[in-house]
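ugh finaly. both done.
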Amino acid sequence: MANTLAFQLYSLREFEGGWKPALDVVKSMGISTIEIWCGAVPSDPNASMSMDGMREALTAAGMKLTCGHLTMAEFDTRYDEWTKLLKDFGSKDWVIPFAKAETLDGWLALLPKFREMAARLKKDGLSLGYHNHHMELVKMGDKYVMEHLLDNMPELKAQFHIGQFKPERGIVLADWIKKYAGRVCSLHLNDSNESGGTRLGQGTCRAEEAIKAALATGVKTFIMEVPLKKETIDSVKRDVEFARKLIG
């Protein structure tokens, strides 16, 4: 199966003119897969984008879906709508984008809910993943939070976010990708240094090394997470080409 280069919908939220022109720009870069973000389709019936509207926008742009960024709350309130959208547009993964706890016990207390989610998704032909931010890269006890989650729930997939693996955190993402080989559903492509976000491959997060480790361990899905606005189109195109040269 060929590798997929996708774009995260959350990164398009500031594009002038809304989702449809943003999707058109992404398509013009040769990307035809989007990671859906639940915040783009609020449950409010008066919201500017409905589920039907998102379907129409994806169809008009000729887009497929991968690795939906969908919260635990959405699982409880709109499970059927989201799973139908994911499957209709080709995604096989529901990825939890965010959770938070103050203690290790608090983090581990999330696992029964994760297991409930994974079991229901499995019946519908989908898998559950978890996306790291900075809070999952905090060490609690003898491991980092993300390790605790993955080690205590073997069926949970990982979606790693390159730009959070700053050297001061003491973790090399490539090592974790190898450690959890076969369980990484996708990689979020971005980069950063001590001053903030950088162009992909120009920060201190060893992005190229992480991407190569992902490729070597069978990861097939790579998702651009770089803010896209009209003023950043050229720099985003540069990031896309950098990624494409690596993943093929």
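ok and the 2nd:
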Amino acid sequence: MNKFKTHIFIILTLATVTLLFWGCDNYSDDQKEYIAKLDKFRTEKNIEFRDSSYSPFNRKSKVEFHPLNYFNANFDFIFTGKLIENNIKDTVKVYGTKGEERKSVRYGLLKLKNKKHNLDVNIYETLARDGVTKYYSIWFTDKTTNNESYGVGRYVDFELNSNPNFIYTVDFNYSYNPYCAYSSEYSCAIPTKEDYLDIAIEAGEKKFHE
């Protein structure tokens, strides 16, 4: 890693954050703290994607790196709600962007809401390559898909809680593109038509390629 370049990169990013706050007296202290935390996360991800040998820019492809594109922090796209586990967990076909068929279990439905919207979001259960470990995913498309955001769709990390009454928080400001958004070397799961959210999720990562 070139420490000098990384240092300059951080300075420029912090300058951008300063401009973001300029004239934003309507933000509460908690909101300003949230935005600073989000921007720190994005800066660190940019550095990791630029420098890590495991990033999609360095491992399989020669795509030229530039900082990832994001919507500004948007508090209208932070939701809370409960997970309703499906009594019958259907195995569904999910296709990758290279056309290969995959199988996942539609585990349950997150009933999310905030002051402006109600959303039903599918949770998928998938076996890892070891054939034993299970992981859980949110994939979605919305009204920004193939416009401001990546045409295949975006993902949000999800961790299952064993408590059936647990209140989840889903923050679309942390939604991100799969690796296939950067390089055709990769294949990623395509959200199904049941994963479409009928609003414009103007939060999280935008298109990388114009």
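summary for the 2nd one i guess: Residues 3-51 form one domain.
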